[in-house]
Amino acid sequence: MALSPNERVRLVAFDLDGTLVERTVYVWQTLHERFGSDPARRRRAQADYFAGRIPYAAWFQHDLDMLAERGATRAAMLACFDDMRPATGAHEALRGLRQRGYRLAVISGSLDLLLERHFPGRPFDHVLINRILFHADGRIAGGQATPYDLEGKADGLRELARREGLALEECAFVGDHTNDLSVLRAAGFAVAVNVKDPEVARAAHRVLDAHDLRALLPLFPGPPPCPPR
Ligand SMILES: [Mg+2]
After folding, report:
1. How far is the CA of 174 from the centre of ligand 1 (A)?
2. 15 Cα to the center of ligand 1, angstroms
3. How many CB atoms lie within 10 A of CB 22?
4. Cα–Cα distance, 212 to 215 (Å, whole number)
5. What tens digit of pLDDT does each residue of 178-213 get?
6. Contact yes or no for 145/60 (Cβ under 8 A)
7. pLDDT per residue as tens digits for the range 12-44
């Protein structure tokens, strides 16, 4: 008997901002607002990226430089992240999925520091995210841009499928916003939570109305048995 899309899944990948973490839509925006970056300068860099005039890594570096200029140290950024929260039921949902035997991943254009702040137990098998580096005194030293944000998120899921020896049909994605559209459309099973845009709901196989990630568990009964070799 043919399996339905959710019954084929072996790996579940998540977006971070707005999906696993609440009280921010995009962490970059929240940080710039907190540290008082010049919004016009920020919008110019964003426009340059979306017009193809600068690569993602240059946009990332530009945002880091702006935050560093405004005094965004490691401690100050962590203080900002303390105002955010893991989504309701996030830890329980991750634990439940793990117990059922799923591989877990994050594919995000957010920051590793935010993930580590709210998910310190490293509950993920794979993390594709921007990395930020600090000097010993906490000042921003630089970073490493993820190649897997926005349109690249779908490539991120393909990369994880390759690493795990899976088909894309065996990989699910859970996200909330338009930067997830490419990967929601590529995933074998796509779930929209905390939806920010109607297009996100249209791209998903399932939409969670409850703002509680434990509502994911009934959608993931456990990965199918491995085929005999
Ligand atoms: Mg998001």
Report:
1. 9
2. 5
3. 17
4. 6
5. 999 999 999 999 999 999 999 999 999 999 987 899
6. yes
7. 999 999 999 999 999 999 999 999 999 999 999
Distance 225 CA to ligand 1 centre (A): 32
CA of 108 to the centre of ligand 1 (A): 8
Tell me whether residue 192 is in a domain.
Answer: yes
- For residue 118, the domain's CATH number is 3.40.50.1000
CA 42 – CA 135 distance, rounded (Å): 24
Question: Structure pTM?
Answer: 0.96
DSSP-derived letter for residue 179 is: G
Domain-embedded: residue 133:
yes
Residue 19 burial (CB < 10 Å; 0-12/13-18/19+)?
buried
Q: What is the DSSP letter of 126?
A: E
Is 228 part of any domain?
no
- Statement to judge: residues 34 and 64 lie in one domain: yes
Going from the Cα of 213 to the center of ligand 1, the distance in angstroms, rounded, reads 14
Query: How many A from CA of 175 to the centre of ligand 1?
Result: 6
Contact predicate 204/187, CB 8 Å? no
Cα(73) to centroid(ligand 1), Å: 24
Q: What is the mean pLDDT of the chain?
A: 96
DSSP character at residue 150 = T
- Ligand 1 centroid to Cα of residue 25, in Å, is 6
Where among 81, 97, 118 does a domain terminate? Answer: 81
